[in-house]
Amino acid sequence: MINTMNKKMGIILAVISAIYLYFSFTLPEYPYVPVDSDAVPIVLGFILLFLSVLLYFSKSEESEEEKLPKGEGKVILAVLGFVLMFILLLEPLGFVLTTFLFISINSRFLGYKKWVSNIIVSLALPLSIYFLFVSFLKIQLPSGILPF
């Protein structure tokens, strides 16, 4: 029944989307807002659920090329560990500092060796997103230990 990688991944993604949808429906409602805070997560959850069903019923045959090369699983687990650390450090360190560390460490870990451009991108991206959200969208992101 679940003998191919597509079916296994389809089931895993369907379970993840069900958990994601459960927590999306528990988000608090805010009065007087045209689009509530749960709208985007609910839409994304249903899209993930729909795509996981499509993946489960896809008819592609599994070949040796589709299998994960040796050593790549450790890289994926390491990046997932970085994502988990990002989530855990987001509130205490703040969005800008945590995102800077996440991008710079991930880029270096994945083999990007140009330090100057790595630091510029790692600083410019979180600062741009932070000021876009705070100044234009009026949405507060965690400031953490930084004074702004």
Task: Categorize the overall geometry.
Answer: flat
Q: What's the number of helices?
A: 5
How many strand segments?
0
Q: What sequence of helices (H) and strands (E) makes up the elements?
A: HHHHH
Q: Assess the beta-strand content as a share of residues.
A: under 5%
What class, by secondary structure content?
Answer: mainly alpha
Can you give the helix content as a percent range?
A: 55-70%
For the termini, the CA-CA separation is 54 Å
Q: Compute the average pLDDT.
A: 87
Task: Point out poorly predicted stretches.
Answer: none
Largest sheet: none
Based on CA atoms alone, the radius of gyration comes out at 19 Å
**Which oligomeric form is depicted?**
single chain
Topology:
Layout: H1 5-25, H2 39-56, H3 72-93, H4 95-109, H5 115-136
Helix pairs in contact: 1-2, 3-4, 4-5
